Write the structure tokens for this entry.
Amino acid sequence: MKHSFKILPVAVLTLFLAACGGDKKPDQKDTTATAASAETAKPKKIILFFGDSLTAGYGLDDATQAFPGVVQAKIDSAKLPYTVVNGGLSGETSAGGLSRIDWLLKQQPFDIFVLELGANDGLRGLPPASTEKNLQGIIDKVKAKYPQAKLVLLGMQVPTNMGADYSTDFKNVFPKLADKNKMTLVPFLLQGVGGVRKLNQADGIHPTEEGAKIVGANVWKELEGIL
Amino acid sequence: MDSINYNRKINFSWLFKMALRDSRRNRARLLLFISSIVFGIAALVAIYSFKYNIQNDINSQAATLIGADLSITGNKEPDKKLQNLLDSLGENRSQERSFASMIYFTRTQGTRLVNIKALDGAFPYYGSLETTPVQAGTDFKSGKYALVDKTLMLQFAAKVGDSIKVGNATFAIAGILNKAPGQTGLSAGIAPIVYIPFKYLDDTKLIGMGSRINYAYYYKFKPGFDVEKLAKKIEPTLDKADYGYDTVEGRKENTGRSFGDLSRFLSLVGFIALLLGCVGVASAINIYIREKIASIAIMRCMGVKASEAFLIYLIQITGIGLIGSLAGAALGTSIQHLLPFVLKDFLPIEISVQISWVAIWQGIGLGVIISVLFALLPLINIRNISPLNTLRMSYEETATKRDPFRWLVYLLVVCFVVCFAYLQLEDWVGAAVFTVGILVAFLILTSIAWLLIRFTRLLIMSGWSYIWRQGFANLYRPNNQTIILTVSIGLSTAFIATLFLIQQLLIAQVSLSASGNQSNMILFDIQTAQEKPLAELTRKQGLPILSQVPIITMRLEKVNGKTAADAKKDTTLRISPRAYAWEYRVTYRDSLTDSEQITDGKFIGKAEPGKDIPISAESRFAQRINAKVGDKLVFNVQGVMMNTYVSSIRKVNWNKVQTNFQVLFPAGVLEEAPQFHVLLTHVPSQTVSAAYQQAVVKQFPNISIIDLGLVLTVLDELLDKIGYVIKFMSGFSIITGIIVLISSIRISKYQRIQESVLLRTLGGSRRQIFSITALEYLFLGALSALTGIVIAVAASWLLATYQFEMPYKVNLWPVAGIFGAITALTVVIGLLNSRGILNKPPLEVLRSNA
């Protein structure tokens, strides 16, 4: 230990990494690029996954192992003309997403918009009302720019230990928004994975490769219908 | 007389009798010598006693960092095998489940994310859960009670007795939690803590499928149990179960360098105490024996054998050493007991006062050994004192330079110093280095004294006034005290100044670490639109904005055209593939902060449109990706590729709570990129913290706040204590050093008596003698103090660089003060020494002293 207090700056840094979720997120452009270079002549339609570390594939070796990658694989094997763009950013909250969406709207056209945000809000105990407001803000911006785009909302729940009242309020945000904005809803993204020890990484919240496959299947179940 | 048997056996009782008889001749003078030994040993015993006591105090304080001897933590339920292990350890054990949850304040109807800790057992074993009211810290386990973090209480205007809802259970607030041991991890900072009794955990219904719970087990062992060894032994089992552990030693290492610095400092102080003891005892003994030479010569004339004379004085010195050491140990121990009592209103820390038998035995042993060792040197000369010496009244040193025993004695002295240094430092290399250092200092001082003797002889001009000539001549004439005084004054000054300088360095280091002006609150996830209003709100609350920076997440795409795949394939590139997997939190500015220093290249604060972007890389980051100034990096800023080159490499001081960055962009490119902001501030109290947090949460519900206050107070308290201990120990050692110095100058009292008296008899005026003495001591004092200080500066630089490993930045002005003070002190004591002669008629002095 060369410097005293090393513990704190290090802790503060790791905090950013932990709170913000992340490292390891091989490029979202990568997926686009590889998919784009896949032979087909006629332009493919684009599905943008806009989300946090779950979308980005925090802790996985490769972003293609995260659930958007799993969905891409299913699209490919079903021979559908869609390309998945991974717009995940570890640690993103709904408020962060509301700021970031402009950047993506400016440069990334899409046909289907999949919104996966809110998990970090829940883990930090932010008021569900503000999460709802931010998510609605994102949806409004998307609708304004691409009125034709189909919208999908991925529902999220918080761990049981947060308390029943908060859990219920939080869980209800998603069906309410989906209903109001006529979005396709995946009721709970982590269905069958959340809380199952061996499907999650050591931190207990990010799915393993195995877990991501189940998460991808959860999404595919609802998404398949609108492709 | 006619039948002297030179082959007679040694008659010990006679030797003892002679030793005693000889000492009777001048008890007053003997007392003076003993007093020097007493002060030397008292200094040593007092310093050692404080040292041992303080070490214990700090160690037990350090234990509050965890609150137990060992803690084992994990985030999943332990399996059967692990559970068996967990149940088998320790004398006392506690367990804790902690998790995030929303609590509800029933009366004020507020909801807040907290960190619930359900506790079972007597944890904390070290320190306590400090609560208001005090007894709540232990009583809350007796019923459905909770302890709630102070800031949280303030935030929700909650009072003791209010109820909170945790999950499905309701708890009454038994007390406000002010401080808790073991809360130094950052996890404590993220959310405020609420303690509940373990037995009501199930009632909350928060534990179950889909819960995220942390499991902690705390252990207390019997005193003396080797926790580290046990921890090493169970580590593989814990690893397999994804569990981790923490011990007091480990936590001390992680807490920073302060503990290491303190123990190194205490070793240094111990070592210096030993040398002070040496100086005190050795200078006394040396002069004492020299004065005995005439008596020895007379005894030889009377038929005493050389070996008998040697033994007589050896016995006498051992006796004197023993008496002096015993008295010194007693004095030292009483100082150690009295001082904290006397100073208790001034000392901000509590120093425990237990009799340290180790210190006492060490002191007595050292006293006797030093006395004998340093007496041996002049005593071996006794063997060569011929009876003629009396008749000649010669002051010429008896030539014994080639006596082989002399070298044996030198060797013994060196061995002794090395051994005792080892006892203090517990490191042979260190002990050897220190001993060599002392030898070098000793040699420097001796040669300075020797040069002084040579040069003053040449220097004195007949044109000088009598007083000047006489004053200077005293420095080289026979019976001069130049060498002995230069060495003892010089060494004492060197010790005092070294301690002073090192103390300065350490205190600067400790206060750098203490959080006084550092940030203790971090706000993050601030959106760009919220940046200005938040800054305004912060200022309006009277809080400083220590830093507010934008943070952009990006990833490294290429290093000089090489991608992650290339790096993985070709290890000769020496680019860590992990560098590509990492998400970088980057900021942009047009200038450097004062914790950054460019080591290579040039910092460019503004990007030119259309050209590659000049970035600054942190040195360790540059190393990881094997990049030099001018190398090209491509960053992927959330979908946009940015071509950059390394324009400079920075060294970052990661010492403080602040935002530091591996990669720094110039202004002009990232302003539009998706970003969030981080704000650091310093809140002076929990009340302010609560009000501020409330205001922020109300206006910007999405912003997350980390209050490091509670974390930092535990650490701060410790650092404060360490700082005071260093100040106290160095202050005390410096004072004892001065006392030893005084007493070693004091013993030169009888050196000058005869000459002064003769001068008086010859008609020298008081004034003249006064001036002569003053000049001699002034010159001796100034020269030795100066040499001592030069040695101290060199020594403290070496210590700072190699022992403490810190930059050498000291203020030398106070050292000039030390120089002046010691010179003045030497002159004053010299004059006091001859006061007796000046004030009494010469005959009286001659009668009593001749």
